[in-house]
Specification:
By secondary structure, the chain is of the alpha+beta class. The protein has helices spanning 3-21, 25-35, 41-49, 56-68, 79-85, 147-171, 174-177, 208-213, 271-285, 289-297, 324-333, 360-374, and strands spanning 93-97, 100-107, 110-115, 118-122, 131-135, 185-186, 193-194, 196-199, 204-207, 228-230, 243-244, 257-261, 299-302, 308-313, 337-342. It folds into 4 domains: 3-68, no CATH class; 79-171; 174-261, no CATH class; 271-374. The structure holds zinc ion.
Length: 384
């Protein structure tokens, strides 16, 4: 390896480091120099001019330092491609905090850590508030009730979010995460350069430097990069009266928000669901076309204590026919079921036709023929 290549290798490493960590390149050069025992890059460069070369061990040390700072190790794989190649339920990290096993998942920049009955969610935006969710059945016993446990978990989550943010910055153009001398930055998704930006979501104005620092999320309201546009008079909604976004207090992450949630599938038994189950049972009980019409047209009411009443038309549902399935469903649901009869709700003439067949096409044919012969068929497809 020639001298030029070895120094170049250090420079390339500095470039990667700068990009992933969103710092100026000279800062990264200094960081690498100091890793190798120099006061700063200028000292290293000066020594290199007089013939000094980094040894293989030193090159390896510099590389390890840069990779340790969350730089993607594989140049060929963009962060988003690695993201998409992972299956939905494949953890990026697993381990234990004390006796409590956890898995960490990443999805489009957001990181989720999960254990038995608890999870912690951290968004890709810098300083986004961690949300701690404890499942209802674990409300009193969850380790996530302890602040020490949450702090330990957040240290792990933060290591992963740092990698995620470094991955995103490495994918984006350099000018998106590092303003130029005038504070101009480039929108990472839509292109477009400006020093002044506007958030459609909260109607605030934002500087390029704020956006670069916050990975293009609005520092005021947390809106994502798709809501951020260059502040220009041509922009809809931007009228020059917009105020700079309010960034409250010190630039530090809000305290984790701990909440008890219940994400178990819930069967809610109320009027609508009870009557739907009863009607489904009636349809099962129905054999002839008339009985199916009877099941569809039956009046089903559920009172405030959940007891039900079914009113069947005597022309559609034979008086002596017990709706066995509906009775069984009521019993399973633990509700009283009252059966009543009414008449005159038959929708077509010749109710008897509905009872001679179990086949609906056959019933429709009988209905059409009877009306052709002894009545009239009127076709109106518009509301009168
Ligand atoms: Zn905003």
């Amino acid at each position: 390896m020639t001298k030029k290549n070895e120094i170049d290798t250090l420079k390339k490493l500095a470039k990667k480091h700068a990009r992933a960590n969103r710092v100026a390149q000279h800062e990264s050069l200094n960081a690498i120099a100091s890793e190798l025992g120099f006061a700063h890059w200028a000292q290293l460069a000066g020594k290199a001019k007089r013939g000094w070369l980094p040894s293989d061990e030193q090159l390896a040390q510099a590389e390890a330092f840069v990779l340790g700072s969350n730089v993607p190790s594989d140049d060929s794989a963009r962060f988003i491609d690695r993201n998409l190649s992972r299956t939905f339920d494949e953890p990026i990290r697993q381990g234990k905090i004390g006796d409590h096993p956890y898995s960490v998942f990443e999805s489009f920049g957001d990181v989720r850590m999960e254990g038995d009955g608890w999870r912690i969610l951290v968004g890709e935006a810098l300083l986004s508030q961690p949300i701690v969710e404890i499942e209802e059945p674990h409300a009193n016993t969850s380790p996530a009730n302890s602040r020490d446990f949450i702090d330990a978990a957040l240290m792990i989550v933060d290591e992963e979010t740092a990698k995620v943010r470094a991955g995103i910055s490495s994918d984006w153009p350099r000018r998106s995460t590092k303003p130029d001398a005038e504070g101009v930055v480039l929108h990472p998704l839509f292109g477009g350069k400006s020093a002044d930006w506007y958030c459609l979501h909260c109607d605030g104005t934002i500087t390029g430097a704020q956006l670069a620092e916050n990975l293009w999320h609005c520092p005021g309201c947390g809106a994502s990069p798709i809501d951020i546009f260059p502040a220009s008079p041509e922009l809809d909604g931007f009228d020059g009266n917009s105020k700079p976004v309010q960034v409250f207090g010190a630039r530090q992450r809000p305290e984790p928000k701990v909440q008890v949630v219940d994400s178990r599938p819930t069967l809610t038994l109320k009027e609508e669901s009870i009557s739907m189950l009863l009607r489904t049972a009636l349809l099962e009980d129905a054999e002839t076309s008339a009985e199916r019409l009877g099941a569809l047209l039956a009046e089903i009411c559920v009172d405030e204590v959940g007891d039900a009443c079914i009113v069947l038309d005597e022309d559609l549902w034979p008086s002596l026919k017990e709706p066995d399935a509906a009775i069984a469903v009521a019993e399973l649901l633990g509700i009283e079921l009252e059966l009543n009869e009414t008449s005159m709700s038959f929708p077509f003439a010749w109710p008897g036709l509905g009872h001679v067949t179990t086949s609906t096409p056959e019933y429709v044919q009988l209905l059409l023929e009877a009306h052709q012969e002894k009545g009239v068929i009127r076709r109106t497809f518009k509301d009168d």
